[in-house]
Each structure stands twice: as C-alpha cells, then as structure tokens.
Amino acid sequence: MSYLYALAVIGLLYLVMHFFTELTHKQKLGVTGVLILIVAAAALYNRSVANDQAYVRQMILNFNQHYTLECRGVEVSDKAFTLSVGTQSFIGNVGTPHAGEIYAASECE
Known about the structure:
54% of the residues lie in helices and 16% in strands. By secondary structure, the protein is α+β, with helices and mostly antiparallel strands. It has 2 domains: 1-52; 66-109, no CATH class. The strands form 2 sheets. The protein has a 3-stranded antiparallel β-sheet with strand order 3-4-5, with helices on one face. A two-stranded antiparallel ribbon has the order 1-2. A hairpin with a 4-residue loop joins strand 3 (81-84) and strand 4. Helix 1 runs antiparallel to helix 2. It is rod-shaped and about 75 Å long. The mean pLDDT is 91.
C-alpha cells in the first residue's frame, strides 16, 4: 500500500515539474521514470528480505519443534546444538562431535 502512496507522490512531483520548471517533456518523463524504477527496486528488495526472514523463522520453528535440519551437509538437531536467538544460528554443544561449530539458520534446509 505504501508503494501506491509513493507512486502518487511521484505523480504529484511530475505535476509540480510540469508547472514550475523549464524542463522539456522528455526530461520530465525521464525524471519520473527514474523515480518509478527506484520505487520498484525498493519494492522488490523488501519482498526479497521478507521472504528470507520468513525462511529463517521457519527453520527456527522447525528446530524448536525438535525436527532435524540439514545445514551444509551436517544434521542439526536440538540434541547436539543450541539455538542462538540473537544471531539466528545453531551452535554445537560441548561434549558433542560438533562442539563449537556454528551454522546460520539461513544455511539450513
């Protein structure tokens, strides 16, 4: 919804340029086009980040529900690893073969 507001602001900017500048029509369209591209790129970036965050949340949820995850070829479970909430990673417990190993939740399947 906020992107619709951004497009409305770009439209208003075009109108302001139309009445208060001496830019040619092509220059005004060029400025407006660049602004539209910036808004579209921001929308795509936000969607990508949201998808990545949802994936990490799902991996953490699976870990908390005692499922075994595969991270870079290693099976990660709550028996041998601890979840570090701050870094969203799994840290190998002391006394296990994976002691001290760290795997980011984003690397897991």
